[in-house]
Specification:
Blueprint: H1 9-19, H2 30-43, H3 48-74, H4 77-92, H5 94-109, H6 113-143, H7 145-160, H8 167-174, H9 178-202, H10 206-214, H11 219-252, H12 261-271, H13 274-299, H14 311-330, E1 336-337, E2 340-341, H15 357-370, H16 381-403, H17 406-421, H18 423-438, H19 442-472, H20 474-489, H21 496-503, H22 507-531, H23 535-543, H24 548-559, H25 561-582, H26 589-599, H27 603-636
Antiparallel strand pairs: 1-2
């Protein structure tokens, strides 16, 4: 509290009463959940629901993941590299094949082969189950509007929740390790598989369906011989999105005991071993990019070439790769050719391994000493951190936690929701904000809210600047496109590593990592919105003598506002998704509460923090999306209210 207020006892008492949510109003769900968890753990072996349902699922998933892990780890490393090259080659050509192969060689070279295969196994099982469930549900959704209307709010909720939230209830019923990680990943990655299958089937041309019916096709033949083949590009695009979403949460699953690269990153963050964390982070990034490019390559429908190729030209390289695989499989251990030992084909040789930890740790030391402040100028990581804290975080924390009474904050946010999105969303916002207080998460929420607002403002400023410049310059857009692809492909977990190099631990790394994570969709939506402004409106403004700044501020930005607001909505959602991850590096707020709950096996605390994050995310999402849709409808029909 400011010094001046300390001398006014009446004001101090009034503020003390209203600055904190009343503790007497706490729902008190933490203790019952912890008691229930203790009871479940104690009686897991005797309860019929566990012995006949949860435990068999847990054991089955554990056996599936462990079996695939063993298969990958027992297979010769060179065999897996050859298969990776073949997949990349078939997806997009030799270039992608080489990238996939070299990515695996890098993982083996830095001695993270076992961890990489564990991550690949966990993700493969999760994606397979998500597709087995998602594609049939997508087919049902495409065939039934009623089922689709039932499914849509469920999928909206799944995609709105931060991925971390799925882990908390899974721990309660399945313990820690592989099974809860798989189930949480399946739930998180299920939505795109359903949506893309539904979309692909609904976009099949009616003329193709009528022609098939005219030839007497049954509904089953129509589905398997016409609709699914024609919808295949969309379905494979859904598989691509499913893989990327699964990859993001599989890494986070290290928090509940899953093995793999995520665990290596988590341990490095906990021990502040930046070099080790960077190695694991690069392995994650390479694997994610390779899987993204391979699945995206297969999603692009290739028209058959009119020019016939010989069988040898078409399948010659495949034959060579198959021969190499057979050689690797049948090669006896420790075989020699011309006195050269070939067991390297079975196990990656230790003499070929290398490490980049020492140079990275050396760079961290150099950056800490030289980039904290550059000369006598107000430049460097130190001044930047101080500026964000002094002019952003501290004023907002003081405003929310000390000056602004909680009833006024809730009332103000409810009024804003009513003005922007209407009565229904306002009531939902009021109930949600009160529920956060009832969960005893009001103060952590205010701390997180300060970080979210600072991160959102900085991201929107950068996204607006780069999005506007990108819409003006095709060359700049071409430069930004691969950078944005990489930023969107890398799992959110990995962003913390390079940021910690420069900013150490605390909430500043969390904010900077959130900005990097949320920037790509903001830039793309703003660029797209401005580019989609009708040329007639632009030409009319120019005809009336508008200067370039006037054209931007009075024509293009207002007309692109719905798209811009949807971009801002995505920015906020992605920053909220980083709240928990940022808690790993001491950002405080809801993230720290959730991470502490999981780390200490205090499920009640984790669920309270998770519910608070969900409610806050849903309030932002409902308000911004509803307002953006209203603006879009108003542009389409200006006479509508």
């Amino acid at each position: 509290m400011p010094y001046a207020l300390r001398h006014i006892s009446l004001d101090e008492t009034w503020q003390q009463k209203l600055s904190r949510f009343p503790e007497a109003w706490n729902f008190g769900i933490r203790e019952p959940i912890d008691d229930f968890q203790f009871w479940v753990v104690k009686n897991r072996s005797s309860l019929p629901l566990f012995t006949h349902f949860f435990n068999p699922i847990k054991d089955g998933l554990n056996d599936m993941v462990r079996g695939l892990e063993n298969l990958l780890l027992d297979a010769p490393w060179l065999l897996i590299v050859i298969v990776a090259f073949w997949l990349g080659f078939r997806a997009r050509g030799v270039g992608l094949g080489l990238f996939c192969a070299l990515s695996l060689v890098f993982m083996a070279g830095i001695d993270l082969w076992k961890e990489s295969m564990q991550t690949l196994a966990l993700m493969s099982v999760s994606v397979l189950i998500a597709l087995i469930l998602g594609i049939p549900l997508g087919i049902l959704s495409a065939n039934s509007d009623r089922f689709r209307s039932f499914l849509r709010p469920v999928l909206d909720l799944i995609q709105t929740l931060p991925g971390f939230v799925y882990l908390i209830p899974m721990v309660l019923f399945f313990g820690i390790g592989r099974p809860p990680s798989v189930i949480a990943t399946v739930i998180y990655a299920l939505a795109p598989a359903i949506r893309y299958t539904d979309l692909g089937l609904r976009q099949v041309q009616a003329s193709a369906l009528e022609a098939a019916r005219a030839f007497g096709s049954s509904p089953r033949q129509l589905l398997f011989k016409v609709r699914l083949p024609l919808a295949l590009p969309q379905i494979v695009s859904g598989i691509n999105q499913t893989i990327m979403m699964a990859f993001g949460i599989v890494v986070i699953a290290a928090l509940i005991g899953a093995n793999g690269l995520g665990r290596s990153v988590l341990q490095a963050l906990q021990r502040l071993e930046v070099g080790r964390g960077t190695e694991a982070g690069l392995a994650i990034a390479f694997m994610a990019i390779a899987l993204d490019r391979v699945s995206y390559g297969f999603s692009q429908a290739k028209a058959p070439s009119l020019k016939k190729k010989s069988w040898l030209r078409r399948y010659g390289l495949d034959l060579v790769l198959l021969t190499l695989c057979l050689v690797v499989l049948w090669l006896p251990p420790y075989a020699t050719v011309a006195n050269v030992e070939l067991n390297a084909l079975k196990d990656y040789p230790k003499t070929w391994q290398f490490s980049i930890r020492q140079p990275i740790d050396g760079f961290v030391t150099w950056a800490r000493d030289n980039l904290y402040q550059i000369g006598n100028l107000p430049l460097g990581t130190g001044p930047l951190s101080d500026a964000i804290i002094i002019y952003g975080i501290k004023p907002l924390n003081w405003f929310f936690e000390t000056w602004l009474p909680w009833p006024l904050l809730i009332l103000g946010m409810t009024v804003i929701a009513w003005y922007l999105a209407g009565k229904g969303v306002a009531i939902f916002s009021l109930i949600s904000l009160l529920s956060i207080g009832f969960l005893s998460m009001w103060e952590p929420t205010l701390e997180s809210l300060s970080q979210i607002l600072v991160g959102t403002v900085l991201t929107v400023i950068l996204a607006l600047a780069l999005g506007i410049l990108s819409s003006r310059s095709t060359k700049l857009r071409g430069i930004l496109e691969p950078l944005l692809d990489i930023l969107q492909t890398i799992p959110s977990f990995v962003y913390l590593i390079p940021v910690i190099m420069l900013f150490n631990i605390g909430f500043i790394p969390g904010i900077i990592a959130s900005i990097l994570y949320a920037l790509p969709p903001g830039i793309r939506m703003i660029d797209l919105g401005i580019r989609q402004v009708s040329r007639e409106s632009v030409e009319a403004a120019r005809a009336f003598g508008s200067s370039p700044p006037q054209l931007l501020t009075k024509v293009e930005l207002p007309l692109a506002l719905p798209s811009i607001m949807l971009g801002i909505n995505q920015i906020i959602m992605m920053i909220l998704a980083m709240v928990v991850i940022a808690g790993l590096v001491g950002s405080g707020g809801l993230g720290l509460e959730a991470v502490t709950g999981l780390a200490r096996n205090q499920t009640g605390q984790g669920i309270e923090a998770g519910l608070a994050i969900v409610l806050l995310a849903m309030v932002f999402d409902r308000v911004i999306q509803t307002w953006a849709l209203k603006q879009q409808k108003a542009q389409i029909n200006p006479n509508s209210k």
